[in-house]
Every structure is written in structure tokens, then in C-alpha cells.
Design brief:
Largest sheet: 7 strands, mixed
Number of strands: 23
Distance between the termini: 60 Å
Helix content: 25-40%
Strand content: 15-25%
Structural class: alpha/beta
Radius of gyration: 24 Å
Bound molecules: nicotinamide-adenine-dinucleotide
Number of helices: 17
Shape: globular
Length: about 500
């Protein structure tokens, strides 16, 4: 709550900045009387929007609107029509591509090429892919013998869960929100979305898209605000929310799980990671350097699947370290709309302070700083941005906090290893279990290791290569459940069995 209060400052340039309000029952609600807080640009610290915090009454209005949608036209809509609407959504997002790119760049400060090549196109794809999954996945059927010899027929049907609470993080706001919305809506649910307080813009824009393509009112609702003691908690503790899908920190997942226990409601969690990258001496060297570089520094290291622990086979350790250092020192800081920039700021001042705290801790814990470790010198107009240098360490002990805790910044620790068994042990020596990336030409070894490393997702000679039909999620403290393809249907629908005596 203290963290939330610190952020509740009224905008300084009130006349010049727009106000983002909740989207409920097909309309943006007026900001009258709402508490407002500032959204600052991560690039230069300017206030770019003011956000109206949704109180408990507004969250209740959103949940009631969603329940009415389920009881109305949306709840009765044939699958074919629902899926056609989702395709129309994807087309409308593509038509307004530049608006989405601009909104996401303003919110996150990340370079335009990441938006135009990954985050926005994949956001649109999330609607199409899940519409197609829902239309094409069959349910099971069993013929059962009975004593009278006539038998019985069992078949399963899928029904939407109802109203889904969708609580989102800030690191890839549009991609991660639509990753949940696509299947939720394709399966026929209504949603109440709580975007991160740091990144409200694309969720608001999506309200316009919903209305433009004719999604019935109340199917998509957005409420803005903070987490504990605020909008996030109001959503997750509302009894009218039937299930909660959440992406964010493991600690927050624990709080949401407690809220969901009331009313025994289902949860799907995609949480933190402290992922290992493993490079064998026989790997395609340049591809491995590129892959580990992207996995550690893409999105300024703010990727749940990112690599913060890198294990390199001893014969190539020094060469690998030097090659990674050279790439890290070649990043081009700059505004997202400047096509020359390859590297953006962190999301907020608060997150910058957290990451810099880990940079100091690493040194206290005995790290050798290969490169980075601080704030880059920026031109005056960007000096108020949340910049940090890409940072590489060596020499930390395996039990150092910097090696065990998720920093969620552009940093990694390199450590040499000598054998397959040793590196499997090191990779598994963590409470997290989200993903790993293995680089080797020896595919038999790679397959063997994929079975032994306790993570939800293993990439071999690649990283972040996604097929939306595959299961996605974490082991251990990195999550509960799997989403993606047919796995999403397990969470967003309830399977019911019908038994017919013949
Ligand atoms: P966060 O947990 O701080 O916040 C996520 C969302 O939860 C925000 O909308 C926030 O307002 C809300 N929230 C916070 N406390 C709440 C509460 N008590 N009740 C209800 N809602 C609450 O996470 P973040 O800082 O936005 O995102 C970074 C984290 O997300 C990292 O740990 C990262 O690894 C993780 N992440 C995981 C995945 C994945 O797929 N596994 C993907 C992206 C990010």
C-alpha cells in the first residue's frame, strides 16, 4: 500500500496529458471524482498520461457488466460467430497497427523494431490462433458397457468458465494481455482486465477495437489501478469473478492465490524465473553468443524467459565472455521511435532503483564486473529516463543472492562448467523452473538434458521461438498450469460429461 501511495501523485501537466479511465460495459467511464496517478515515460520521465484509479464500486460495475454479457447475447453466441469476431479483432488491430505500436512504445520505451516485429503482431495473432483452436479441438467420447447389454454413451462438452479476472504485468503488456484474452474470449468467457499500473495504454486502445468490430458490451472490461489495497485486489477478491489468470511476480501470485481460495476459484499463474542458459564447447559459437545476448538483454532484460545465469563449458569460457561483452557494449541507447536505437530504458524509476540495488549487491558479493554495472551517460533530454547499462558478471558463488534471485533487468552471471552432470545440477539449483536454453551440436545430449532440467520450457539452439499451440508455463515457483493451444482450453472452459443410457 505504501508503494501505491508513493505513486499517487496528481499529474503535473494536467492540461497537456490525457486521462485514461476504466472501460466498462462498452464505454470509457468519466474520470469525475476518481483518484488520478501519473504515468511517466520511461525514456525521459515526462508525464504522458494520468490514470484514473478504479475503486471497489467501479470494479463491481465491471464484474456486473461481464456477468450481464454472459447472460445475454455473448453467452448464447454460436462458436462460429464468436470466432469470426475474434478474427475481426485481429484485423482491426492490424489496421490500427501504428496506434498500437505508438501506445506500447510510449508505455515501455522499448525500440520500435521489437514492437513492429514481435509484440504487436503476436498480440493480433493471439486472437486468430485461439479462435482456430476452439473451432478445431474435439472433446472425448466413451461407449460404456452396461449389464443390460444396451450400453451407454458418454461425451464431454466444454462450457466457458464465466467471468475471468485477467491481471497483467508491464514487461510486454499487449502481448501478455492478449495471450490471455484470445483464449478467454474464444472460449466464450467475459473478462475484467487489470493492466499493470505502469502500462495502461494498449488495454484502453483495445476497448476501441472491441466496439469497432461489434463485440457485445460487457464482454471486455478494463479497470486501472494498483495491486494490493487497490484495483488488483478488488478484482481478485470479487466473488463474481469465476477464475483468475495472472502473470507477474511469484510473491504477487501467492497473494492472489489466497484471494482465490475464497470461493475455491481456479487460477492460472505465469510467474518469475531465474533461467539458465547453457553453452557447450561444440555449439555454433556465433549463434550461441547471439542467442544468449538476446535472452539476457532483449527488452532491457525484462523478459520472464530471460537468461540471468549463463553456464559456459570451460574450453570456450573466456572467448564467450569476451564476445558477449563486445555485443553488450555495442547497444545503441535511444528513443524508441529512433530506428537506430536497439536498447531501451527500464520501465520505471522504482524498477531502475531495484536493478541498480542488485548491481551494487553483486559487487558486494564479490562479482567481477565484465561490463556495465551502472547508469549510462545520456544526453540531457534523456537524463531523467530509467536507463541502466547491460551488465555481465563473473566470479559469484553459486549461493550468492544475485545468482539466486530474479533481478528482471539486463544482467547475467557467467560461470564455467566441466561436465553435463555438473551443469544439470547447477541449472536445477533454483526455486524457479520457467525456461532454459541449451546450445550444442550434440542433439542426443540436448534431448537428454531437456528431460533432466526441471523447467516448463526448454529451447535447444534457440530462445523465445514460440508456437502458440505448445504448452507454456513454469515448474516449481514459476507458475501453476499451462496455457497455449489446447492447454488454454483446460483453464478457460469447464469440461462437463454427459452420460446417455442407450
Ligand atoms: P507484479 O506481480 O508486481 O504485478 C503484476 C500485476 O499484478 C500488476 O497489474 C499489479 O498491479 C498486480 N498486483 C500486484 N499485487 C497484487 C495483489 N495483491 N492483488 C492483485 N493484483 C496485484 O509483476 P510485474 O512487476 O508487473 O512483472 C514482472 C514479473 O512478472 C517478473 O517476476 C516476471 O518474471 C513475471 N513475468 C512472468 C511471465 C511468465 O510468463 N511466467 C511473463 C512476464 C512476466
Amino acid at each position: 500500500a505504501a508503494r501505491s501511495n508513493a505513486k499517487r501523485r496528481v499529474g503535473q501537466n494536467a492540461a497537456m496529458t490525457r486521462t485514461i479511465t476504466s472501460f466498462i460495459d462498452g464505454a470509457f467511464v468519466p474520470a469525475d471524482g476518481a483518484r488520478l496517478f501519473d504515468k511517466r515515460s520511461p525514456v525521459d520521465g515526462r508525464v504522458i498520461a494520468r490514470i484514473a484509479e478504479a475503486d471497489a464500486a467501479q470494479v463491481n460495475a465491471a464484474v456486473q457488466a461481464a456477468r450481464r454479457a454472459m447472460a445475454g447475447e455473448w453467452g448464447r453466441m454460436p462458436v462460429e460467430k464468436r470466432c469470426a469476431l475474434l478474427h475481426a479483432m485481429a484485423d482491426e488491430i492490424t489496421r490500427r497497427f501504428d496506434d498500437f505500436v505508438a501506445a506500447e512504445m510510449a508505455d515501455t520505451g522499448q525500440p520500435s523494431h521489437v514492437m513492429t516485429h514481435v509484440f504487436i503482431p503476436r498480440g493480433a495473432a493471439n486472437f486468430k490462433v485461439f479462435a482456430d483452436v476452439v473451432k478445431n479441438v474435439a472433446t472425448e467420447s466413451f461407449r460404456t458397457d452396461t449389464p443390460d447389454g444396451r450400453g451407454a454413451l458418454n461425451y464431454a462438452i466444454r462450457k466457458p468458465k464465466g467471468v475471468i479476472g485477467v491481471v497483467c504485468p508491464w514487461n510486454a503488456p499487449f502481448l501478455l494481455m492478449t495471450w490471455k484474452l484470445g483464449p478467454a474470449l474464444a472460449c466464450g468467457n467475459a473478462v475484467v482486465v487489470k493492466p499493470s499500473e505502469e502500462t495502461p495504454l494498449t488495454a484502453a486502445l483495445l476497448g476501441e477495437v472491441m466496439n469497432a468490430v461489434g463485440i457485445p458490451k460487457g464482454v471486455y472490461n478494463v479497470v486501472n489501478g494498483f495491486g494490493p489495497g487497490s484495483t488488483g485486489e478488488f478484482v481478485t477478491s470479487h466473488p463474481g469473478v469465476d477464475a483468475i489468470t495472472f502473470t507477474g511476480e511469484t510473491r504477487t501470485g501467492t497473494a492472489i492465490m489466497r484471494a482465490a481460495a475464497e470461493g475455491v476459484r481456479d487460477v492460472s499463474f505465469e510467474l518469475g524465473g531465474k533461467n539458465a542458459g547453457i553453452v557447450f564447447a561444440d555449439a555454433d559459437f556465433d549463434a550461441a553468443v547471439d542467442g544468449i545476448f538476446r535472452s539476457a538483454f532483449l527488452n532491457t532484460g525484462q523478459v520472464c524467459l530471460g537468461t540471468e545465469r549463463v553456464y559456459v563449458e570451460r574450453p570456450i569460457f573466456e572467448r564467450f565472455r569476451d564476445a558477449l561483452k563486445a555485443k553488450a557494449e555495442a547497444v545503441k541507447y535511444g528513443r524508441p521511435e529512433d530506428h537506430a536505437s536497439t536498447y531501451g530504458p527500464l520501465i520505471s524509476r522504482e524498477h531502475q532503483q531495484k536493478v541498480l540495488g542488485y548491481y551494487r549487491l553483486a559487487v558486494e558479493e564479490g562479482a567481477s564486473v565484465v561490463t556495465g554495472g551502472g547508469v549510462p551517460q545520456m544526453p540531457a533530454e534523456l537524463a531523467e529516463g530509467c536507463w541502466v547499462q547491460p551488465t555481465i558478471w563473473t566470479g559469484l558463488a553459486d549461493d550468492a543472492r544475485t545468482v539466486r534471485e530474479e533481478v528482471f533487468g539486463p544482467c547475467c552471471h557467467l560461470r564455467p562448467f566441466d561436465s553435463e552432470d555438473e551443469v544439470v545440477g547447477l541449472a536445477n539449483d533454483t526455486d524457479y523452473g520457467l525456461s532454459t536454453t541449451i546450445w550444442t551440436q550434440n542433439l542426443a545430449r540436448a534431448h537428454r538434458m531437456a528431460e533432466r532440467i526441471d523447467v516448463g520450457i526448454t529451447w535447444i539452439n534457440s530462445w523465445f521461438l514460440r508456437d502458440l499451440r505448445t504448452p507454456f508455463g513454469g515448474s516449481k515457483h514459476s507458475g501453476i498450469g499451462r496455457e497455449g493451444g489446447v492447454h488454454s482450453l483446460e483453464f478457460y472452459t469447464e469440461t462437463r460429461n454427459v452420460c446417455v443410457k442407450l
